[in-house]
TrEMBL record, chains A, B:
Belongs to the nucleosome assembly protein (NAP) family. This is Nucleosome assembly protein 1. GO terms for biological process: double-strand break repair via homologous recombination; nucleosome assembly. It comes from Solanum lycopersicum (Tomato). The keyword Nucleus applies. Keywords: Chaperone, Cytoplasm, Nucleus. InterPro entries: NAP-like_sf, NAP_family.
Length: 263, 263
């Protein structure tokens, strides 16, 4: 038999055992889970950073080989090689069209590259991927040599994510390309003959957007007020953003893995 | 000036410096990268497993509280509580409708749950997530008490993935639900009155598929030969598979995080 004090204690505990308080207990467990999960994300980020550092010397070496900055051990200078009268192929520095080839070997990217783009992509010297922290996301850097198409030597594409665990794209930002006059690959100029007997003898020109890999740097924009767009437009936007993200993801794959198929 | 031997060496090296061989060097770097990456995947899997173990006691505790298997420290048995004549609420075990509430609090899942489903989901006692290794993927387990809707006490959904790094869904497999007669929630029986003057006086019944969360256990099937389906059907299938995956992903989120909003 229990005394008065015990009775009080039992009633008290019983009251604490209603569903609401049990839900509180579950919430305490949830907080403990969230704390653990935060530590997991921290450790995972540290692991990713550790391997990013380990990959770095390989990327640097690849850059140097691909762009002929260094040659293999014991190799002589280009002038000395020319002196030995070896054939032209042997003196060509680096791996010609490495990045264009790598991109064309990727199923997603190859779909985006037009014939017009190829000439410009031959000037691509490196693709770098890096994580960004504030806001969360990642950045792709496309390094170009001086080329006759655009002034920029660096084109970047940055993806801002909402959630780190299940990454949800918030928006993507690209570099504005400074095309040289008449060299823009994302636009086509259509010329129409003036009508017969027209006073103006000049042909009428019309500029039109066209397919090009370089549209990648002008990603789809999410309107400020999402309610402004109807269901079809929203679906179209969703598809465009997914494609844009896929291109970004595969550019990363190309950047980190280089190419498999070329030899 | 170099001697004959040196000349040979230079020519040799020069020959080795043609683009093809440089590509070989790049491939060596790629192999080194892949080896490092394999180690990264290994370490990441170990990290995930470590935290899965750390979460486990919290899930067990939650299961016990939610289902009234244990009560809070110092609590008495249900019989003893009844003995103290505390009100009915206080003796109700566990957290009623915990999982139904958790699922309804999730935006993706709540869309899938019909009013008819709710009664059956009140018998849900736990959702468990686990990784599977061969083939790669993950498994969701839905534990039910004995209920008047179906015989099974465990419904599972397994997702097989193609790629671990960028997980691509290969297929999903669900438990076949053994519905009790007349209790199937994924079908509706439509009764049509027989035409006036018809010889057969019985109403004609027609069974039709209908919306239900339990369709989750009968996921869309990818045809063996993908070329058998046209573009529209392929897009429809893709959308269905994405939705199915989202439901699975959010079931996992509910299973690992429990519920936020209920109190």
């Amino acid at each position: 038999m229990s005394n008065g004090k015990d009775n009080f204690s039992v009633a008290d505990l019983s009251a604490a055992l209603n569903a609401g308080d049990r839900a509180d207990l579950v919430n305490v467990l949830k907080t403990q889970h969230d704390d653990l999960e935060a530590k997991f994300f921290e450790e995972r980020a540290a692991l990713e950073a550790k391997y990013q550092k380990l990959y770095q010397p390989l990327y640097t070496k690849r850059f140097e080989i691909v762009n002929g900055v260094i040659e293999v051990e014991g190799a002589t200078t280009e002038a000395a090689v020319a002196d030995q009268q070896v054939d032209k192929d042997a003196v060509e520095k680096g791996v010609p069209d490495f990045w264009l080839t790598a991109m064309k070997n990727n199923d997603v990217l190859s779909e985006e590259i037009t014939e017009r783009d190829e000439e410009a992509l031959k000037f691509l010297r490196d693709i770098k991927w890096s994580k960004i922290d504030d806001p969360k996301g990642f950045k792709l850097e496309f390094f170009f040599e001086n080329n006759p198409y655009f002034k920029n030597t660096l084109l970047t594409k940055t993806y801002h994510m909402i959630d780190e665990d299940e990454p949800i794209l918030e928006k993507a930002i690209g570099t504005e390309i400074e095309w040289y006059p008449g060299k823009c690959l994302t636009q086509k100029i259509l010329k129409k003959k003036p009508k017969k007997g027209s006073k103006n003898a000049k042909p009428i020109t019309k500029t039109e957007q066209c397919e090009s890999f370089f549209n990648f740097f002008c990603p789809p924009q999410v309107p400020e007020d999402e309610e402004d767009i109807d269901e079809d437009a929203a679906e179209e936007l969703q598809n465009l953003m997914e494609l844009d993200y896929d291109v970004g993801f595969d550019s990363n794959a190309v950047g980190t893995n280089g190419y498999d198929k070329q030899k």
